[in-house]
Amino acid sequence: MSGGMRGAFCSCLAVFAVAQAASAQVPAPPPPTGVFPVFIETADADSHPTYLLGYESAPPFVRCERACSLWAYPARYTLAVRGEGYSESSRSFELTRPSRVVVEPKTTLQRNGGLVVGVIGIGFAVIGAALMVGSDSSLGDSDLFMPGLLSFAAGATLTPIGFVTYGRHKPSIHVEPL
After folding, report:
1. What is the pLDDT of residue 139?
2. Of 79, 105, 118, 170, which has the highest C-beta tally within 10 A?
């Protein structure tokens, strides 16, 4: 053997002599007894809310953007929604087995839109009532009664729809078993 080959052979021998024996990776330990997998995701693929999850009446212990997975114990949980453009709100739900939790957060646009529709409904109802009361058949204004009735009916329909939409600011949560 030449001097260069002998040096390379010796250094390889030295590396093998000092190196520790190779071992296979140890598999991850199984999850603790009583827990199960839970997947939390947003119903709308284009939305990017932040979720805070914790036991009911306790501070949150999980924070995730749009989707996450975790090991959970059977219990009642509270999920809070945060983020730009979303109504900050929370809702409680119960997990008893492996589940997929689909969340539909409410946006501030939906909430404010409900308020606008409710107020416009009140305006229609007031104008309709004024037209109905102001139409006097003896003066020949009976042709204002029907538009007043239609305006009042539209207002009576829009007002509760708008205010119910405004009041429903909590996220919708659907727990689906896996």
Report:
1. 58
2. 105
Taking the C-alpha atoms of residue 62 and residue 86, their distance in angstroms, rounded to an integer, is: 19
Phi, psi of 114 (to 5 degrees): -65, -40
- Give the other-Cβ count within 10 Å of 101's Cβ: 21
Q: How far apart are the first and last CA of the chain?
A: 66
CATH class of the domain whose range is 36-106+169-177: mainly beta
Residue 6 identity: R
Rounded-to-integer distance, Cα 42 and Cα 111, Å: 19
Q: Which stretches in the chain have pLDDT values below 70? A: 1-24, 28, 30-32, 136-142
**Rounded CA gap, 176 and 93, in Å?**
12
